[in-house]
Amino acid sequence: MTRLSQAFIPTLKDAPADAEAISHKLMVRAGLIRQMGAGLWTYLPAGWRVERKVEAIIREEMEAIGCQEMLMPVLQPAEPWQKTGRYEIDELFKLDDRKGSPLVLAMTHEEAVTYHVAREVRSYRDLPLMLFQIQTKERDEPRPRAGVLRTREFTMKDAYSFDRDEEGLSRSYEAQAGAYGRILDRCGLRWYKVESDVGMMGGSGADEYMAPCPAGENEVALAPGYAANVEVASATAQPVELPAAMDAPEKVATPGLTTVEEVSAALKVAPAALIKALPVVVEGRGLNMVLLRGDHRLNEIKLRNALGADFRQAKPEEIDAEIGPTGFIGPVGAKVPVIKDTAIAGAGLICGANQPDTHLRGVQPGRDFAFEELDVRTVEAGDTAPGGGTIEIEPAIEVGNIFKLGTRYSVPLGATFLDEGGVEHPIVMGSYGIGPARIVAASIEQRADERGIVWPASLAPWQVHLVSLAKGGEREREAADKLYGELEAAGAEVLYDDRDAGPGEKLTDAELLGCSLRIVVGRRGLAEGVVEASERDGGAEHKLPLEDAAAQALSLLDV
RNA sequence: CGGGGAGUGGCGCAGUCUGGUAGCGCACUCGGCUGGGGGCCGAGCGGUCGCAGGUUCAAAUCCUGUCUCCCCGACCA
């Protein structure tokens, strides 16, 4: 099928100097991809074969749940985007045609599918409906990074479900979730389904599929029976030893000490005994003070969700004018509403006194200040998960997500149906995305070793990497040529290294490229009438008798 | 958008401070030797030093502007 002497698979001894992520380095070195610009990548033949294997698996699993494939344009009129309010998104590429009509390059296809469904679907009899495509997406990313992990142009499998009510949506959602699990399993990934932020789209539920790996951009909080994106994770904080309670707060001089570390060191208490006050300006509410335990970090997404409104950090002049001197502010006697994080509890706490160079100790929430309690901190490794397990935090790549959209798109785009009673209702939608390139990268990140890529059998660009150590015209080469023909005839996908190169180069390239089974035909083996097969994953070696090598190789592949 | 770094042959880099013949390793081409882990010898090809302007007798090198790429952060339907 493919002879390496003729193939366009440019391997590199060294990775480009600017590559950081393992998958980025190996994909470039193995000749899978090449860069054209920031976040713009070309798939070379070997890389494209892998990507298409992922797509084939996705396609099969989508069709198995009754999801129908279609294809929508990437270049679209701006109008539906203006209707849904997404025309304002910074990441959306916008352009005009020669007549001056505004167009966009789609970043997803909710507007497009909904546009079509709105025109064709009229009756409850047309529902439920599930559609998908495997199509290019364009996003003007502020910072593309890590090879194929975060790019401005990428392929996405995006599916959309259309139901008459929430119950139907839940069924479609579960069907997709089932397919997602099968897809990721078949791709050989370690993955977690985690609760995720529904974001500004305000849907009724969302889950992300995370593949843990060092290059991951997201963090997932994991415990037995619990998995959530750190963006939304919630857990019980680790306990702290607090100073003794007091009858009333007492001032203590802390000249020039403004950070948690300085104050806790000076007063000889744990950082967790302090209350950190973060002044924020909340949309529609004005200046508020958010309180966190001294050793905790604010989770902006949780705060935004809990408030149901956007917010920003207060400016120093706003703090000085309305609360007190920056670095010494606290809730006791403050003139602004106080939001206390759940993890702050007990008595004997320490906080700023709203006076220069002064803190208060012996502070007790409720007694000394009123508050609204919200869970707004970022969970940490060692916290206790809702199920009672201990939280661990791992970096992960988001390889897919599923989302209950509700009527977010059907209402502005007029996608409605008539029920049995002739009453019009908006269609209830879901959307479901998978990034094949991220699956490829995650697979490499999770499985590669120091010699190169280690593909699972389902993703390997070729099943067999056949290496002839002899050069053209030599006797040993004829045996390799013959085996190549036999493997092909038997239906195997074979990459045949027939180059006139040294053995070191050929063997190293085979390991770099990572196909499941390498078969070496060389003088040494042929002397005993065998070829040498080795499995890339695990390294098991087998000597196959020459005359039966093709058949035995195929049976090794089935394992 | 903030901070940092880099653009010199296909890849990796030196040369820039202190202006004066563009260099090294790998790759590539040709010839030969070698042949189980990127081997050796010899001969070659290939670069207006990101771009534009300026200073100078003279600019990869100094000055100004600009573009691109990478990393950290912010951001990420």
Largest sheet geometry: 9 strands, mixed
Radius of gyration: 30 Å
Poorly predicted runs are none
End-to-end distance: 23 Å
Strand content: 25-35%
Structural class estimated from helices and strands: alpha+beta
Mean pLDDT, all residues:
86
Count of β-strands:
30
Fraction of residues in helix:
25-40%
Number of helices: 13
Net shape: globular
Give a quick rundown of the structure.
The chain has 559 residues and is α+β, with helices and mostly antiparallel strands.
Q: What report would you give on this structure?
A:
By secondary structure, the protein is α+β, with helices and mostly antiparallel strands. Helix content is 25%, strand content 29%. The protein has 13 helices and 30 strands. Strands 4, 8, 9, 10, 11, 12, 13, 22 and 25 form a 9-stranded mixed β-sheet that branches. Strands 1-27-26-28-29-30 form a 6-stranded mixed β-sheet, sandwiched between helices. Strands 17-15-16-18-21 form a 5-stranded mixed β-sheet, with helices on both faces. The longest helix is centred in the first third of the chain and has 21 residues, at 166-186. The mean pLDDT is 86. The protein binds one RNA strand of 77 nucleotides through helix 11 and helix 12.
